[in-house]
């Protein structure tokens, strides 16, 4: 019993250090909320903040957010296997999230995928994979796996391909020749009346 309690406490400490809310840590570890609040105060030097968990819709609401979540979910499943679609694997969640943060750190300069997911947002995705609210799909064009909301209009759209199209459009616009000051594209095609008059 002591070893089991010690293992639960160590897991709770790892989750709290990562920033997981004590309500989730209580659900995962089985430890009493009062104990977890004390641990949180010892680790972070403050009381845990209350608040609601984010919804899946907010985490997958745009191509950029969906691609961001797909990076995390892919790493999570790589360590937890197909079983993560049936139950949450906490060890795979921690390992996948750590590697996800490392991968995202390399993209900081480009800001391609926006803000990183914290461990609580990662847990929401992991939870909804087990309920079927979040599904793994594979793009028929680029063959890259991604996650999508089961009832979302974006469920059939690959976020990676959508971002590629968006970026290509911006690059084409950026490569367009500069317009002369004080003139528009339409004005450039018009003949110069003064030149015609004096010719």
Which helices and strands occur, and which strands form pairs?
Blueprint: H1 2-18, H2 22-29, H3 33-44, H4 56-59, H5 63-80, H6 90-105, H7 119-131, E1 134-138, E2 145-149, H8 159-175, H9 185-188, H10 193-198
Antiparallel strand pairs: 1-2
Helix pairs in contact: 1-2, 1-3, 2-3, 5-6, 5-8
Outline the structure in words.
Helices cover 58% and strands 5% of the residues. The chain folds into 2 domains: 2-44; 56-174, no CATH class. The termini are far apart. It has a two-stranded antiparallel ribbon with strand order 1-2. The longest helix has 18 residues, at 63-80. The chain has 199 residues and is mostly helical. One of its GO terms (molecular function) is metal ion binding. Residues 169-199 are annotated as: Disordered. Keywords: Activator, Bacterial flagellum biogenesis, Cytoplasm, DNA-binding, Metal-binding, Transcription, Transcription regulation, Zinc. This is Transcriptional activator (FlhC).
β-sheet strand percentage: 5-15%
Counted up, domains total 2
Poorly predicted segments: 171-176, 178-199
Q: How many strands, what sense, and barrel or not for the largest sheet? A: 2 strands, antiparallel
């Amino acid at each position: 019993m002591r070893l089991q309690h010690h293992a639960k406490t160590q897991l709770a400490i790892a989750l709290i250090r990562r920033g997981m809310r004590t309500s989730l840590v209580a659900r995962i570890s089985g430890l009493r909320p009062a104990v977890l609040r004390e641990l949180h105060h010892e680790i972070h030097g403050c009381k845990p903040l209350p608040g609601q968990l984010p919804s899946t819709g907010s985490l997958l609401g745009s191509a950029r957010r969906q691609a961001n979540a797909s990076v995390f979910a892919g790493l999570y499943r790589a360590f937890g296997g197909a079983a993560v679609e049936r139950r949450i694997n906490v060890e795979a969640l921690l390992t996948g999230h750590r590697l996800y943060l490392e991968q995202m750190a390399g993209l900081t300069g480009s800001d391609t995928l926006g803000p990183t997911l914290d461990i609580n947002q990662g847990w929401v995705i992991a939870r909804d994979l087990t309920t079927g609210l979040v599904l793994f799909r594979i793009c028929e064009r680029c063959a890259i796996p991604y996650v999508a909301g089961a009832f979302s209009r974006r469920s059939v759209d690959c976020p990676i391909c959508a971002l590629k199209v968006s970026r290509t459009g911006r690059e084409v616009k950026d490569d367009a020749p500069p317009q002369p000051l004080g003139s528009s594209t339409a004005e450039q095609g018009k003949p110069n009346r003064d030149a015609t008059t004096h010719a």
